[in-house]
Amino acid sequence: MISEIQINAPVATYLNSARLSDLRRINYIFGANGTGKTTISRVIAQLQGHSQCSLVWHGGSELERMVYNRDFVDRNFNQDGPLQGVFTLGENQVEAEREIARLQPEINKINDQISSINIQLDGSEQQIGKRQELQDLEPGLREKCWKQKQLHDTYFQAAFSGVRNNAENFKAKLLTEHTSNTADLLTLEELKLKAQTVFSSNIERATVLGNMPADDLIAIEANVLLQKVIVGNQDVDIAALINHLGNSDWVKQGRKYHEQNPQTCPFCQQPTDDNFANNLAAFFSDAYDTDIQLLRELQSEYQIASDQLTAAIQRNVDINNPFLNINLFNAAALTLVERVKNNQTKLANKIDEPSRKVEMESIQPLISQLQNLVLEANEATTLHNQTVANIATEKQTLTSQVWRYVLNELADDLLLYQQNKNRHTSTINGMEKALTDKNTRLNSLKDQIKDLERQTTSIQPTVTAINDLLQKFGFNSFSISQTDGGRHYRIIRANGEDASCSLSEGEKTFITFLYFYYLIKGAQSSSGITANRVVVFDDPISSLDSDILYIVSSLIKVLMEETTSQNSNIKQIFILTHNVYFHKEISFNRRRSADGVLSEESFWLVKKLQHGSVVERCDKNPIRSAYELLWEDVKSENISSICLQNTLRRILENYFTMWGGMSKDEICTLFDGRDKLICQSLFSWVNDGSHSIHDDLYINHGEQTNEAYLRVFRAIFSKAGQGGHYNMMTGAVIEELDVHFVDQSVVIESKLEAAQ
Question: For the Protein CR006 P-loop domain, which residue ranges apply (predicted)?
């Protein structure tokens, strides 16, 4: 049966969504005309234009819906041609009925089992279904996956591209990778380092660093000449003196001055002869000059080599290679340059003082450090340039490695998720297989019943039953008979003439109801007679007098009694009405307490307010005081103008036709002018009935519609001597009412104050 009706706005008079939930086997829905009752019946019927509204079926098993409302009448009685016949089981078909009776309990049992499985699968208000339990695994895993994404998103944005802004998509991608990713597992630092290159938005080739030649410098630093004591010829006379003084370098420097002035000693300024000059020349022999020349050549070579090395170092700095540790490189290069300068100074000093031994500081350790830094940078540069040359493949590889790393972080969570998912999936698959098997068996049983029904059904029992009821309740001027070879009905007069176009409203309503009543017990085809169904009655007593109203109520009560039986194919009933007496009659049940409801029933009120129709559940039968409900609408501040006027009409109809003591004409004579027009319009509605439409009625009273009608409505009770009833129903007091007849006009002065 239906467990919930969802009315999704906007539809008809519903401007906001409404919901009828926890529905029972018998559901009473009361509301004034125009409040939205028929919309509910149309939602149940799922007519065109109401597809956005939905029904929730208990256990997921949808039943046949049979709805009696204006649409049913229009489809079956407001068209040319005969009525479709209502097939029921014929007489004297004992064996077929016995077989159907035997199969029906098994069908009901399987239906219950299917409903139970559906509840286990999809859940109910009291329990969570297996499918929901399976779905509930997803949020927990999604949250854990998303935390890992947020943790690594800063440096792995490119790897997460396409799923970075949606947690569900990220989780789905991770599950896909879980089944197929075979990438190498790298450390986080390795991934970050690769990502700086591969995922860079402006990746370019890097320039390889150049060689730094230093072999010549290193060779000069080790030259033996630097350790040689370079002195003059020891065989000349002055050699002993020069060696004794240890100042051969000073003498060598003074020699050039003597060459400029051969007559004077450059050291003591004494006169000299040719022998002194010859001794000096002999002391500084060719061997001495050769060594000095070699020193000068070493100095020149060292200068050239150091300039080349310095230039090579600067070129590497200017390249701006991203893989060169520039800080270490600059520090080592600065130290190297300083050391080279010191060695150049030492070499110059050696030339000035050849007799001294000179030991230069080796640049070998510094050169090795610089060359190692360059080598490391060039190795990284080579890998980088290979990556640049094959960037698409590298990006794909690194992306897979990033996902592999995240998978490894979530390994335990994924294992637990997969175990739970497999367990739930296995359970659901088993239930779905059982559901398929039971539906197959159910369809087989239904086919058997259809075959039995085709063999035994007839429309004649319905003809006989409807005609009997028509005769019993005084409808003697027409009846129904078979036509078209027993497939349809036609409505005929006693003389055999067609009567479908000449029926009164009451006749039409009653025969429509009888047709629907027997349709509930049968079908419009020769099969489907015993199918389980939901039945809806929407105002079935319109235009019927009180006697027929009682008969209709009695027939519906029979169906309600059947509904409470497990073997009945009527599983649920909805009764919608605006008629107080019909509602009280149909809902009367001695077992129900005054302040409660039975377990198999629910009560609802439909109201139309300024913001549209609303549906309210009642914890007891509201129509124990339906008349009071009309007065509650009068006191409501946001009731619409049309609904207010209809409510006022119904109060006047209920009160003055039974207890008011004055006729409509007598009351109207007490008013004059515009108020008289309003009074007459209210009583015109009483006379016309609740479903009349007054297209030609227009009253320009110059006031707000609600205020004018409420004022005249109050005055009607006052003038009719029923002010006490008005006070009781509204909780107000009419303090003063003076009626003066002046010039055949009525002057009314009244004041309404809230009761203290």
Answer: 14-718
